[in-house]
Fold these 2 entries.
Entry 1:
Amino acid sequence: MYSQIDANKRRSALLIAVFIVLIAALGYVYSLFTGDTTYGGVYVAVGISLIMTTISYFAGDKIALFSNNAKPIAKADNPYLYRMVENLCITAGTPTPRIYIIEDPAINAFATGRKPELASIAVTRGALEKLTNEELEGVLAHELSHVQNYDIRFMTLVAVLVGTISILSNIFLRSRWFMGGRKNNREGGGQAGSILMIVGIVLAILSPLIAELIKLAISRRREYLADASGSLLTRYPEGLARALEKIAASNQPLRQAQPATAHLFLANPFAPGTFGSFFSTHPPITDRIKKLREISV
């Protein structure tokens, strides 16, 4: 169990390192073609990304809950759900999050909040009606683990890096063609300059795609980590495995699913086949079920 958690943390750290290398490479190529030794464009790109992500960091939970039409409930509204969350939080030693219900027949749930003290957890009506006690407990433990593992904060960092890479790519391409392109052509860079120009343009075009793929890979790793952490919390991996089996069998998408918040959910909220598995924010359910059943607690 702990080996699974440690392995996922190491892999996530490695993916972040690849992100940083991409940003450094793009910044170097930008300065090479524009002759900007001060890296002014890089600082502007980083600044814009930080401003955008700061807004998401402090208001992202409210945006996610609103966009998925999640409604807050009090303990009296659903004592069964409230007590289950409270019991899991006591076991985990974390504060009880705010609890929301999404009026949707699909089986799903998500958690948000940059730290346990500000966390929220949203559960669909379908999950409440179709899952047994042990299955729902497994789902809730998975989502609480995202908060306990600071996954939301981690993914915010990833969002900063993805945004930075995308903006840097745009700056490079625009400055290359509209500022530095004609100048370099007049001065003549020779064969080496032409090769560097091609490499730079390819890097600028592919970097956002590579960054997005890395983000998806990190999101998948965090799902495996939450599966392992949730199983450690309940001491019953089979509960979550059975819940995932019901999700796979129903094939029912969330009616108000949003691409921007898809990575938050327990399982991909879109209909199967909407996106290829290569571009999915979640690992295959069958693979998650298999790993859960290999866990011994």
Note: The longest helix spans residues 190-234.
Entry 2:
Amino acid sequence: MNANLQHRPATASDLGDVVAFPQNLDELFFCYPKAIWPLNVGQLAAAIAERRESTVVELDGKVAGFANFYQWQHGEFCALGNLMVAPWARSQGVAQYLVEVMEKIARERYKAPLMKVSCFNANAGGLLLYARLGYQAVGIVERRAPDGSRVALVQLEKALP
């Protein structure tokens, strides 16, 4: 694990950094399917307003990752959403660290015995990350990509010890 990683609640001043993380329409679709390209501060602020525990990871003092919960049921589960990592910070353990932080928040603040995530079939990096962290596929649902094509949304779960 990268010793230069820290996390904290996201603030309004972080949004300008975070909206630059998705590099193209596909990346934005993977982390925020309802958003319209390009992601802007207004769209991200709206997501944060209806979600919980928006969290940033800093790598060497710079905002490098972001995630939140889009669903939460105290004592039952939390569902991880909007997971994104800055292009310059990829392959440095940011996403794994962030998922682990969110699991800890789910356990401690929501008494959640289960974490849920959803990942599109074309997001190989995401699917491999979640598999490595112990998530198991529990379902596949059909969705539509921005171009109207059919895509599979893989639903995964992990018991939180």
Note: The helical segments are 15-18, 25-31, 41-50, 94-110, 124-132.
